[in-house]
Structures are given as structure tokens and as C-alpha cells.
Specification:
By secondary structure, this protein is α/β, with parallel strands linked by helices. Helix content is 34%, strand content 18%.
């Protein structure tokens, strides 16, 4: 194991792995105040295409970032996957809030065969309360919106208070999953503390493999390392071939 990555769990129990190797459908979920053209989304998409997989990377800022909620994003996920062949093996990759969404989806649906989570944003309402405090939340409620920097738009953007109201209806702590799950988290993450993923791993023994990286929340520098382990993880589950250059490029068509 490279010195820049520490594996915090024993080997995943592979009893839930797919029984037959096939090219999967891969859904990539970008993070909060981001978009489908983010650095990590493009990197993972490029690597997956080298292995014959054309990933689905929906824009979760629908109908707009201002009206964004967990519910609206889960609706986008359901709409995107609802048009896929139900026989496809599904892998869901999620970054930050996308990692939380991937986990929430897996707790609500049996379609996912594996998860890959990059600094998943567990404990979302609790962390927003800690960040803004009571006065900040009251100001947000009274004004109806707050402003945050949106990386995909490269400017500040409004976010309605419904975001936090909606989030409170979801269980975002102590989540449990029943599919093999690979997690990467930076030990110096100041946005989503690594302890969030440590607790998630401890709550899911034998299912979650947690890799702690010498990085912060962005996880840009260790992308090659994360892909290397992701490829091995999916290959072990018979969801990707061993080597690049696979023949039979498969673009998942909508029905």
C-alpha cells in the first residue's frame, strides 16, 4: 500500500459480488456547488471510457442551483437510471454530497452492485448547523436564501433555505449499506471531516473499505492512486476487465 494512502478496514467480504463479469452502467454524481464537468468527474469518465464504459454524469443542479435539495437530486438520479436496461449491473460513484446521494440511493434501491465514494458528505444538516450557527441559520431562514461560491459557475450563487429544510427529512448519519463500498477520504478534509467516513466504515464492517489519503477535501492530487484502487476494486467484483484497451466499447442506451 503506498504511503500516501492508509487502508482502515479489512478486505471486503465478496459474497455480494456480481456472479458474472459484464460491462456495467456507471453513474457519477458530482458534489455540492459543482457540475458534470468537474475535474474528478472528467478524470473518472476518461478512465472508465478507456475500459469500455461510457458513464452517466447528470447535472444535479436541476431545475436550478437556487432550488437545489436532496430530494430534487434524488429525483434526477431516479429519472436517469429509470431509462436504463434493468439487467445492467450498476456502479455508483459519488463525490462529496454526491457520495451522500449515492449512499442514500443504495439504501432505497437494490439496483446498485457497488459504490465508490469520494469524501462523502455524511451528516449534512448537522455540519451546516455547525458551520453557520443558530444566528446564521436564522438569517438564512428570514432572508429565504444564502449565497455560496459555485465552482462550476465560477461565481457566487443563491441557495434557498428549502435546501436545509428538505435535508432534515433524510437520515444522513449512521447509514448502513449492503453492497461492496470503496471510500476515499482526505485526512486533512476541513469540509467533511474524515471522522464521518471512519464512523461510516465502523458501522458497515465487512462491506466498506476506507482509504485515508494525505489530502484535503478536493482529492485532486491523489486521483491516479484512487483510480488504481477503484479499478482493482471493480475488477475484483468482476465489474471491469483487468487491462485497458478492452474491445466491445459499450455505451449504455436508454430504452
Amino acid at each position: 500500500m503506498p504511503s500516501s494512502m492508509t487502508q482502515q478496514s479489512s478486505r471486503i467480504d465478496d459474497t455480494n459480488k456480481p456472479r458474472a463479469a459484464r460491462v456495467p452502467a456507471v453513474l457519477y454524481l458530482h458534489g455540492f456547488a459543482s457540475g458534470p464537468s468537474s475535474t474528478k468527474a472528467r478524470y473518472f469518465s476518461d478512465r472508465l471510457r478507456e475500459h469500455g464504459v461510457d458513464p452517466l454524469v447528470p447535472d444535479l443542479n436541476v431545475p436550478s442551483f437556487e432550488t437545489l435539495t436532496l430530494s430534487s437530486q434524488l429525483k434526477v438520479i431516479e429519472q436517469t437510471l429509470g431509462r436504463l436496461d434493468p439487467a445492467c449491473d450498476l456502479v455508483v460513484v459519488g463525490s462529496s454530497m454526491g457520495g451522500l446521494l449515492a449512499t442514500l440511493y443504495a439504501t432505497r434501491s437494490s439496483k446498485a452492485r457497488a459504490l465508490v465514494l469520494l469524501a462523502p458528505g455524511f451528516g449534512l444538516p448537522r455540519r451546516w448547523h455547525a458551520l453557520l450557527g443558530s444566528e446564521g441559520l436564522d438569517r438564512w431562514r428570514q432572508e429565504g436564501y444564502t449565497e455560496v461560491f459555485h465552482y462550476a459557475l465560477n461565481r457566487t450563487a443563491r441557495l434557498a433555505y428549502d435546501f436545509i429544510v428538505d435535508a432534515q427529512q433524510y437520515q444522513t448519519d449512521n447509514l448502513t449499506v449492503c453492497v461492496p463500498t470503496l471510500v476515499f477520504h482526505g485526512k486533512n478534509d476541513e469540509t467533511v471531516p474524515v471522522e464521518e467516513s471512519i464512523r461510516f466504515s465502523e458501522n458497515n464492517p465487512g462491506v466498506v473499505e476506507l482509504n485515508i489519503l494525505e489530502d484535503g477535501h478536493e482529492l485532486i492530487e491523489p486521483l491516479p492512486l484512487m483510480w488504481q484502487r477503484t479499478h482493482s476494486f471493480l475488477h475484483e467484483l468482476e465489474l471491469l476487465p483487468t487491462c485497458p484497451g478492452v474491445t466491445g466499447y459499450q455505451e449504455h442506451k436508454f430504452s
